[in-house]
Sequence to fold (245 residues):
Amino acid sequence: MVVLMGLGWFYLGLLLAGTADLSQSLCGPLQVSGWSLLGVAVVASMWCAMSLAMMLPSTAPMILTYAEIADTAARKAESIISPLVLTAGYAVIWIGFSVVAALAQIAFTRSALLDAGIASASGLFSGAMFIGAGAYQFSTLKHACLAQCQRPFPFFFTNWATTRAGVFRLGLKQGAYCLGCCWAMMLLVFAVGSMNIIWMAACGIVITIEKMLTGRRFTYAVGAALIVLGIGTVLTASAAHWPRN
Fold:
């Protein structure tokens, strides 16, 4: 997990080192050309790196819980499967998300909502993204998925599997719960810029704290802050277009 997370941040660091040239070469042509397979693959690789860097730290409790249960089973001479299989199932979900996010980024770029620097070209668009993500923090689906992420032990105890396919499916399910919990927060990258490393780190910290805590106060506080930030962004963008006397 640490190695994969490190590779994600390392790759993002390489991208950041050449942000200007890379952004133009990746997204500039996407504004005028079609949906090339190579373009989707390269942008998806960036999203995969972001997912690894931002989401893997929050999986530590889930993976450690599985490892502890597996260790107990091993002492009883029961068959166990490596946590790597569980992690692989989890990663598949976020790889799929990365492909969808890459397609969305290409569509937003060609619609002039994102510029060639992979940053929002519209304050109204950014504000709407913040408000939408903030509102999702209060949704029933968000808290149903978050509850599964916060308490992995009952999930594993109830759904324990002793085959590779079974453990892989457990990883898929946990990845799906994680996606249901965090997709809106991840898509805020569109509002702040895909190469905003500080935002990625802050978002990863917030997601990790959310999964470590119980209750809803922190989640609600984050949601309220995002909505306020979104409203402020919308008002600022609107004010820029108001006629001046």
In short: Confidence is low (pLDDT under 50) at residues 19-25, 28-33. The CA atoms of residues 39 and 77 lie 49 Å apart.
